[in-house]
């Protein structure tokens, strides 16, 4: 989140220094680990007027270094995992949740009455952990917003707001948040979305009263798009906090901007691993505001059950869940105040952030 002015205080643009780990304390005393914050204005390229193909920010392309530039981008499960929809739950508590004092955290907030929009491939509400979580939405590619043939959006929604279920240690960060499902892509056959359907979904989410908007996608070839830029700007002006995945083309370590993550006012999320290091695929760049767990992420899948996957796609909803908790605890706070709270409570390893994961040092 760049250039935020909160109660007379402005998040500063900072010089880049070395650093490889991440920690976030959300409520001061209660530790919510794996999240760190950086702040710097992106160097934005010239916008375009046409729609732009998009791709989901799971790790499918990252392993091979692909650009994901096809008009019908690859969707679905991480290349590093195999998963059967409608399968079993995972009994153990995921590593990303073991670092959080969940019971103490939920004494402060659970996300209740906070609307979180998931702009993705749909959210399958037949999964028992999501059936009471999804409260609205719309599809822009045919079919229902509460169906998900790819599995991506269902995973994202679970990390944010999956309800507790007997027999599994997995639960969403904000287990009482309301999920609004906007299926902007992932339709049958040729019905794939682009920056145009993403822009429509952003506008609809704002109209529906979403205070947090999660976008675990980016444009193909890291292409800026004028219509998407306007949609994001309008949402930010309306007071929504957009949380977006930074992308998975980071194996070469070279900094770059991705969109919508690099637009002003968006909280751009990179991925960290179990060792609190940057996940090898996570895109680096001055746009990076936040890093959160994005490797071996357990979550819900269509038709029931759970699986694991890698990607900044699954780091972003971790942060969106945290934002929902902060919004419930502080309902009068603006998006800027929520982001600034995250920044100010990070435990910093040095005098400044870095382009990979940002400010903070992770502890267990």
UniProtKB/TrEMBL annotation:
<comment type="similarity">
    <text>Belongs to the peptidase S8 family.</text>
</comment>
<feature type="active site" description="Charge relay system">
    <location>
        <position position="152"/>
    </location>
</feature>
<keyword id="KW-0645">Protease</keyword>
<feature type="region of interest" description="Disordered">
    <location>
        <begin position="41"/>
        <end position="74"/>
    </location>
</feature>
<keyword id="KW-0472">Membrane</keyword>
<feature type="active site" description="Charge relay system">
    <location>
        <position position="120"/>
    </location>
</feature>
<dbReference type="InterPro" id="IPR036852">
    <property type="entry name" value="Peptidase_S8/S53_dom_sf"/>
</dbReference>
<dbReference type="InterPro" id="IPR022398">
    <property type="entry name" value="Peptidase_S8_His-AS"/>
</dbReference>
<dbReference type="GO" id="GO:0008233">
    <property type="term" value="F:peptidase activity"/>
</dbReference>
<keyword id="KW-1003">Cell membrane</keyword>
<dbReference type="InterPro" id="IPR023827">
    <property type="entry name" value="Peptidase_S8_Asp-AS"/>
</dbReference>
<dbReference type="InterPro" id="IPR050131">
    <property type="entry name" value="Peptidase_S8_subtilisin-like"/>
</dbReference>
<feature type="active site" description="Charge relay system">
    <location>
        <position position="313"/>
    </location>
</feature>
<dbReference type="GO" id="GO:0006508">
    <property type="term" value="P:proteolysis"/>
</dbReference>
<dbReference type="InterPro" id="IPR023834">
    <property type="entry name" value="T7SS_pept_S8A_mycosin"/>
</dbReference>
<keyword id="KW-1133">Transmembrane helix</keyword>
<dbReference type="Pfam" id="PF00082">
    <property type="entry name" value="Peptidase_S8"/>
</dbReference>
<protein>
    <submittedName>
        <fullName>Type VII secretion-associated serine protease mycosin</fullName>
    </submittedName>
</protein>
<keyword id="KW-0812">Transmembrane</keyword>
<keyword id="KW-0378">Hydrolase</keyword>
<dbReference type="InterPro" id="IPR023828">
    <property type="entry name" value="Peptidase_S8_Ser-AS"/>
</dbReference>
<dbReference type="InterPro" id="IPR015500">
    <property type="entry name" value="Peptidase_S8_subtilisin-rel"/>
</dbReference>
<feature type="domain" description="Peptidase S8/S53">
    <location>
        <begin position="111"/>
        <end position="359"/>
    </location>
</feature>
<keyword id="KW-0720">Serine protease</keyword>
<dbReference type="InterPro" id="IPR000209">
    <property type="entry name" value="Peptidase_S8/S53_dom"/>
</dbReference>
């Amino acid at each position: 989140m760049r250039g935020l002015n909160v109660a007379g205080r402005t998040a500063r643009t900072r010089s880049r220094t070395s650093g490889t780990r991440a920690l976030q304390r959300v409520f001061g005393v209660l530790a919510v680990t794996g999240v760190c914050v950086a702040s710097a204005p992106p160097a934005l390229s010239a916008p375009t007027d046409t729609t732009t193909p998009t791709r989901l920010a799971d790790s499918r392309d990252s392993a091979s270094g692909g650009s994901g530039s096809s008009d019908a981008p690859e969707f679905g499960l991480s290349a590093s995992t195999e998963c059967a929809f409608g399968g079993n739950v995972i009994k153990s508590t995921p590593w990303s949740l073991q670092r959080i004092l969940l019971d103490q955290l939920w004494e402060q907030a659970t996300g209740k009455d906070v609307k979180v929009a998931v702009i993705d491939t749909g959210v399958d509400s037949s999964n028992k952990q999501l059936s009471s979580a999804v409260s609205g939405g719309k599809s822009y590619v045919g079919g229902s917003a509460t169906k998900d043939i790819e599995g991506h959006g269902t995973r994202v929604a679970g990390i944010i707001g999956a309800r507790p279920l007997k027999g599994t240690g997995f639960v969403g960060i904000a287990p009482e948040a309301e999920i609004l499902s906007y299926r902007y892509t992932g339709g049958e056959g040729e019905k794939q979305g682009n920056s145009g359907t993403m822009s429509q979904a952003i506008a609809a989410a704002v109209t529906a009263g979403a205070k947090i908007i999660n976008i675990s996608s980016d444009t193909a070839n890291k292409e800026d798009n004028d219509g998407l830029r306007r949609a994001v700007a309008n949402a930010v002006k309306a007071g929504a906090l957009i949380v977006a995945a930074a992308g998975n083309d980071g194996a070469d370590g070279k900094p770059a901007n991705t969109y919508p993550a690099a637009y002003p006012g968006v909280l751009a999320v990179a991925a960290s691993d179990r060792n609190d290091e940057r996940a090898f695929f996570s895109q680096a760049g001055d746009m990076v505001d936040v890093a959160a767990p994005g490797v071996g992420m357990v979550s819900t899948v269509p038709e029931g059950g759970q699986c694991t996957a890698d990607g900044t796609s699954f780091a972003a909803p971790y942060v969106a869940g945290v934002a929902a908790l902060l919004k419930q605890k502080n309902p009068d706070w603006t998006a800027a105040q929520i982001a600034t709270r995250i920044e100010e409570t990070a435990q910093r390893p040095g005098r400044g952030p870095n382009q990979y994961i940002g400010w903070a040092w992770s502890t267990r």
